């Protein structure tokens, strides 16, 4: 709790353009105590929190919001990701969604996929969608196109790119191919 409060005090102080010494003076708190509060080394009293809130011209509750805010985590056991249909599915790409977070992330959505390409995979027109994408090759070998460039990916290689440019497998070199694809986009983005 004290770490979350300290982060929020620091965030509010910086947003107001105040130095640590200025906030300490405005709240009638010693500079040493201010440092300990911001670094999460002590838990401030309610009176100290009230003084800080007044000095920062914010409601007291705003200093507690990071502590109160529920943080999201998604756990997926091996082999239990939800198989979903995306544009590449009809070309034999198997997509397993490994989780999805988007509600408390400031309008940023993240979709992690485990994608499998096998001998049944057809060539497919290039993909193009909003956001950023990270590929991490786990198995196999693939030549992957992004815009006018082609990258030869082998296990352990990654490719991070603007997904608005045409992209997709150019040549399936060594099958089966398995890679992680992590797509992030803002509100209104996602698959075209």
From TrEMBL:
Pfam families membership: Cupin_2, HTH_3
GO molecular function terms noted in the UniProt entry: DNA binding; DNA-binding transcription factor activity
CDD domains membership: cupin_XRE_C (cd02209), HTH_XRE (cd00093)
Keyword line: DNA-binding
GO cellular component, one term: cytosol
SMART domains: HTH_XRE
Sections of the chain in a coiled coil: none
Keyword ATP-binding: no
InterPro entries linked: Cro/C1-type_HTH, Cupin_2, Lambda_DNA-bd_dom_sf, RmlC-like_jellyroll, RmlC_Cupin_sf, TransReg_Diox_bact_type
Residue ranges of domain HTH cro/C1-type in the record: 9-63
Protein name, entry field: Helix-turn-helix domain-containing protein
Origin organism lineage: Bacteria, Pseudomonadati, Pseudomonadota, Alphaproteobacteria, Hyphomicrobiales
